[in-house]
Amino acid sequence: MKNIKAVFLKQLSDTLKNKTVLIQFLMFPVLVIIMENAIKLEDMPEHFFAKLFAVMFVGMAPLTCMSAIIAEEKEKNTLRVLMMSNVKPAEYLLGVGAYVFVMCAFGTAVFAAIGGYTGADLVLFIGVMSVGIILSELTGAVIGIFSRNQMTATSISVPVMMIFAFLPMLSMFNDTIKTAARVTYSQQLSELINGIGVSGITAESLIVISVNLALAVALFTLAYRRKGLE
Amino acid sequence: MRCAIKTEGITKAFGSKTVLDVIDLDIESGEVFGLIGPSGAGKTTLIKILTGQISQDSGKAHIGGKDSRKLTGEDHRHFGITMDNFGLYERLSCYDNLLTFARIHGLPKSSITDALAKVGLAEAAKTPAGKLSKGMTGRLKLARAFMTDPDILFLDEPTSGLDPVSAGEIHRIILSEKAKGKTVFLTTHTMTEAEKLCDHIALLNEGKIVEYGSPEEICRRYDHQRMLKIHLSDGKDMQLPHNKEAAAALSELIVSGRAETIHTTEPDLETVFMELTGKELSA
């Protein structure tokens, strides 16, 4: 626990100095405040931008932050120093994962406030966002584990992030994309968020998200066993 | 004196290239030991084996009596390691860099200020590590290595690429650790550093130890001429054999005041290394 806390606090003190990571945490929460206040169109669903950006945030921020942080530690050989200081790989991953989760929780709070969620809807929104953050973190961790340096991590994480973050938006305009996107957790998160207070939780969403989660855990376990953190 | 580091027949190959070839070492507790060799001789590989970062192909290595392949995280508290490829958190201040490791090791915050003061970085505590000069970076890495007050320090070319003033600072720190009874395992390719700091050295060439002993012993061993070079007060130079037969003549020169300087013909370590390997150390 001591080592997880040390990694967590180390990341926390790096937050304001690490612009690459900071921008990921801030971009969509700031955008949603601006867009929700600046753009009011007829026929636009209520809190359209809050729902849209919440999904994009979940698909992008945890994934890119996890992969960037792990890859940077490998590239700069600070990870090796941590390992030589009795920090276990699992403790490191939990420390970074907890940090990314907490930072994304602040973003979630902004989306929840702007989205006007209260009561059971708020609990459901937080639950959906939390599952999404964990799924994206696992995916980002897999990329970080397989990447030797930040450049490799970016070249892998950008296309993966584009798929998860932007497919739900693109699927609004194209049914074929929507059909294909249904197997991704981010599309299902989008549908769950849009269904809060309307259609509730569907079995399809639960199944797809569960399968995605199982796949992410399996991929993470495989990556971790094959490559470790070295 | 108990043995702090002991290796028996350590051999390591990467692919078809043998990097370490039957390395036997006995390093006593409290001594500064220098592993000297040119780049690529296998120095860093040996440190990695000794500190459990990689495993040897054959042979045994014991650190503080423990098999290096079975070192636990707790054992690492007793070793301080600085290696060129051990990074720092460049965006974090010197203080915050050490704070992370103080938290990991469960040390009080006073240990951070103590460590920074020890390496002369107290005033740079708030400076981001990425903005330090190379010499200051080296000292911050040393501070991190010293934080747990380890019994054994592994320093991999700690002064490589530093200016003489920065190197001198690091020498001062190493000698102060030695004075406290710490064992220091140092790698370098600088002979003057080895002569200044080390109680014993091993010359490593292409994975083999080609000579071992104190710097003075080794130089004496390779003094093939065994002569004394004497500079006389009249400006002339003369040589006498370095034996008791020459004692009377030498005594006369000293008593008469004609001998201004007397030097032995012992080679320096650089020359010894060249004689043994046909290579220059700085190569």
Q: What are the SSEs and their pairings?
A:
The complex is a heterodimer of chains A (230) and B (283).
Chain A: H1 2-14, H2 19-38, H3 48-75, H4 78-84, H5 89-115, H6 119-146, H7 150-170, H8 175-181, H9 185-195, H10 203-227
Chain B: E1 3-14, E2 17-28, E3 32-36, H1 43-50, E4 58-63, E5 66-67, H2 73-76, E6 79-82, H3 94-105, H4 110-118, H5 134-146, E7 152-156, H6 164-179, E8 183-188, H7 191-197, E9 200-205, E10 208-213, H8 215-221, E11 227-232, E12 237-241, H9 247-255, E13 259-264, H10 269-277
Parallel strand pairs in B: 3-8, 3-9, 6-7, 7-8
Antiparallel strand pairs in B: 1-2, 1-4, 4-5, 9-10, 11-12, 11-13
Helix pairs in contact in B: 3-4, 4-5, 5-6
Question: Which tags fit this structure?
Answer:
heterodimer; A: 230 residues; mainly alpha; 10 helices; 81% helix; globular; B: 283 residues; alpha/beta; Rossmann fold; six-stranded mixed beta sheet; 33% helix
Brief rundown of the structure:
The complex is a heterodimer of chains A (230) and B (283). Chain A is mainly alpha-helical.
Describe the structure.
The complex is a heterodimer of chains A (230) and B (283). Chain A is mostly helical. Chain A has one domain. In chain A, α1 crosses α5 and α3 packs parallel to α6. The longest helix of chain A is centred in the N-terminal third of the chain and has 28 residues. Chain B has 283 residues and is an alpha/beta fold. In chain B, the strands form 3 sheets. In chain B, strands 6-7-8-3-9-10 form a 6-stranded mixed beta sheet, with helices on both faces. Chain B is globular and about 70 Å long.
